[in-house]
Amino acid sequence: MNTIEVKDINKSYEKGKVTALKNVSFNVGKGELFGLIGPDGAGKTTIFRLLTTLLIPDSGEAKVLGYDIVKDYKQIRNLVGYMPGKFSLYADLTIEENLNFFATLFGTTIEENYHLIKDIYEQIAPFKKRRAGKLSGGMKQKLALCCALIHKPEVLFLDEPTTGIDPVSRVELWDMLQKLKTEGITILASTPYMDEAVRCDRVALIQEGEILNIDTPDNITGQFNKKLYAIKAGNMYALLKALKQYPETDNSYAFGEYAHVIVNGDVENLKSFLEKQGISGIEVRNTLPTIEDTFIAESYKP
Amino acid sequence: MIKHKIYKQFTAFIRKEFYHVFRDRKTLLIMFVLPVVQILLFGFALTNEVKNARLLIVNPTENAVSGQIISKIKASKYFTVTNVAHNTTDMESYFKSGNIQCALIFPSGFNTTSLKNNTIQIITDGTDPNFSKTVTNYLNAIIGEYLQERSMLQQVPLQINSEVRMLYNPEMNGSMVFIPGVIALIMMIVCCTLTAVAIVREKEFGSMEVLLVSPLKPILVLVAKALPYLVLSIINLIVILLMSRFALGVPIRGSLLLLFAESILFIITCLAFGLVISNSTNSQSAAMLISMMGMLLPTLLFTGFLFPLENMPIGFQWFANIVPARWYFLIVNDVMIKGLSFSGVWKETLVLIGMSVTLLSISMLKFKTRLQ
Question: Residues A105, A201: one domain?
């Protein structure tokens, strides 16, 4: 049995005017770290709210730990941990008070499950008398994670746990999730950052309420069957404009300090085209596709 | 075991709620400073009693009678005699400059023995009709009193005297009128507004999402939210009663226990109203606005402590009946000032119970266990 089963879920808001999810289906196995990857507004938060029984789907069904999200919502609420995208702890309570409150709320104590949160909590423990509202973004997320974990949930729902925090804390947070996996906790996490997808066992790429692809990060990038070039030039803006004009360009976009290009035919032809356009300092190299490249390729409709 | 767990959840929740109250300066201010300020304001600053009205006396013919009347007026606390003149030449300019608010004019050749020159004229500034009426009554009363005293000495064979007695408030302490009203007003602000805002705040900050996805029964969230405000309101009530008793000299004639029981009933009505508001809004500012417009304003206007209900159009009088504070105001007035027992207020009590039950049922029915 899968820990999370989602089948043909449709969800719309404002009496059907805004479609949030279209025929979404996916399964998450026990102990899996599953990532929902997609830009803002893709429908990630709606999936979380459905699975945490906060919303009811228009059609389709979903089960968490074998319980139906509509009928058995009470059971689900006892067994899962949920960390919403927005910081939702009490800003006027200290770290310690927040944690204590949520532990008691779930009928447990900090001591009972301390081993689960130990690694995370030790980092914020020096500030435990500080009010949550005065913490940095990274510390807030760590505290929120502690609060979601304190009752040893069987499934952990993390809605954009790394949004708004610094790169170092992001890496740390994913390290922690990897560790939690070893405790047998199933984790569903979402992120708008494509580079975090590789930290998941499997990911679902989602855009505009539709799932584009579900697979392991390696397989997803493996499915990228076109040659990808990274190009750099003195004037990036002129380069991107010229790439769009080149007739054999399949797709091109800025990617960090490079432009990524999928091009038909010989890349040397492109190079000479660019030189003719007066672009100097051109540097072309082969590059391996990332999840982001796949995502762009999947969502790109010429 | 399970019971024990629920109890622990509940107390943790209530402790958290008290943290919120005591760490938020604004809540504390509304909770404890506002009542004190209101009592002091209504008690000492805002009063419709007339004291020290500035009076001009025009007395062309000085004699024993006018002298006695003038000294009687001077002795009363209602008037300050600013000028005594022999003619009325400057009177109008005094009125215009605001030097005087009223004038008492003896006719020239004033005496009480002839029928010709015995009319005293009273002139007041009519821009404030209430003030004018009060001043006129006071002056008439002083003159009447003087005449009565005199006629008693002279043994006039037949005369009708009226003896006035103001029941329950013989010294005309204005505080007695508004204290019940202010209590109702403060309870409304503290219970209704603060409870509504406290719950909506959880929605606005997103913590309601986390609370819902927890084993805690949603109804317990409501109860745990409301309970601290019930306790704080009772403390507030004690403060108000102590202040009105010892600072303003308003007596508590009826049973203190009954007064408290009725107050708790009213607090529950307000809490229930706050819960209904919190269920139907998602932002603190909306909750604030609704409770202000929906409760505070009607409480001020339709309880009868600022404006007499009897003078209002019939539609407003009907509307006043659905304002809970109106019934509580009657109860406090009856129990505290008049000293009635439960048999005197059972009807009002029944109305409040009915309102509480209705509002509580609405809030329970409307409470959402989900986000939509």
Answer: yes
